[in-house]
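As the next step, I selected for study one protein, both as residues and as discrete backbone shape codes, as given directly below:
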Amino acid sequence: MITIQNGKLIIPDDDRFVGFAGDNAITSKRLVLMNEVDTSSSYTLCLRFDDDTVRSVPLSAAADGGNTVLTWDIAQEHLYAPGIVQAQVKIVGSDDVTRHTAKDFFLIGSAVELDDDGGEAEYVTPSQLENSIQQALQTVTATSPYVDSDGYWCIYDTQRGEYVRTAYHVSGVAPDSAMSDSSDNSVSNRVIKQYADAKAADCNTYSTAYTDLKTSDKVPNTRKIAQLPLTSDIDASDLMDVLRPYSYRVNINPNNSGVKGQMGIGVSGEVFYCTATDRWVHLASYTDLYDKMDLVTEVSAAEMDDVDDGNMFFSGGTLYVKYDGDSIAVAQANDVYSKAEIDTMIGNLESLLAAI
């Protein structure tokens, strides 16, 4: 069974032979993508022949338990030439992320009666064929890409003669080379451990300073507002209930001291206001003010006899007071002579009275 595991294409020896070059009898091969169910991606088998000719073969995908089965229907054009053909599966996800498997190879046989040039075929012994296969296996295996312990693909550099790590990761996201507080990319386990160890060392060495720095602009949850703790939301009605006793005072009399701007309620329910001198001033109601302003009324001449004794009133622009049933006009300053004016007119009033 041909399998794909962790990005590596594994072809057993008994599955390597796929047919003879030029054959048009269609057969099929099944490639099993292990432990992954993904029928929405596009799968292509890429074949490279000895003359560097490439054939791209679409593979159909179907779910089978926890695996995905890829089917290669082998057509005549896929058997382009005899020999060893390199094979690699290309996977393109629905999000356009492309990934490849490692390379392996298939075998395509030639017609017995003809060689590649159309002449009589050279006889190949089983041992020669086996040696060729083994050599091809060693070449492909020795240079096949692999995934290292950090999840990076590594490829063989023929010029340097060694494997080198690429920038490609099995997750499709290139991990950061170092931890940071803003990156969303993954990193290797080794880098995570280094980052965590460094943070732990910082916290152990500078724990007090680090904590103070991080909490310097924070309010502790033991803080209260108007005796209400900040451990949860404060409702407006709850806040008003605790503030109401401080917004006014009761049993006020004018001799009490108070807080400027505070309202107060007297013993009889009257309203007080604390002035800038920290003293309480009684605030008269509209009805009280109206009654006081209505003490002096204006009556017509015909209504003057109806006014009770002791009351003051206006009539015809003159101020009167009712006394013993009579309406007595109250003299204004301009209507009365001063003592100096009287002395000028008749002499000293006290001297005249003494002479009588």
